[in-house]
Amino acid sequence: MRTVEGGLREQHKARRRSRILEATRELLRDNPESVISTERIAERAEVSPATVYNLIGQREKIWEALAAGFMDELEHRLAAPGAGDPHEVIRSTVHLFVSDPAVSRRMVREWEASGLVLDRSPLTQLRRALAEAQAQGVLRADIAIGGLAAVVGTACVGALHQWVAALIDDDRFLARALLALDVALAAAAADPHRDELLAPLRTRGRG
Question: Measured between alpha carbons, how far is 125 from 85 in angstroms, rounded to an integer?
Fold first, then answer.
């Protein structure tokens, strides 16, 4: 009986936590520049401010939880068949952020650790995709896949912050993230695949 009761309590907590985060998203979508306070979130979620604090935490933890929600959704999208291609990993990541700009822009601006926002799902999936390309002989065997993925991730975080600051639009965000990947792939290309992986860069140069 105690196990059942404990399980039900955890389910209730998870539902309240989900409601709190969705209430935060709704507030941001209603007004992207609105003040996000525990009291306003609690009112929208129909819980007490103490519940917001206990289940999520202070405001910095709210942004962190929203970021985790983005990564959960990205993992779901990348689990689809054909989503393991490195270009598809980048496209899915960018599309996720630009599909909910009111939430993603505010979360990146406000969260002090936003440089870590891509560290979980995108980089894990990207490392896996690059490792597969290396196993197939597309990338050189002497390339450190972790370092290659980190370089691409750093460039994508930079493009994300430019997009958040409205220095670039959605299309340029995607283009810069894909460019970072194409540069990395070309630099790591095995000889038989070098021309193939250089082709996207040559096309951009002609453009």
Answer: 9
The CB-based long-range contact list for 45-53 (8 Å cut-off, 24+ gap) reads 45/16, 45/19, 45/20, 46/19, 47/16, 47/19, 47/20, 51/16, 51/20, 52/20
pTM, two decimals, is: 0.86
The residues of the chain scoring below 70 in pLDDT are: 1-6, 81-84, 205-207
Q: How far apart are CA 98 and CA 162, in angstroms?
A: 13
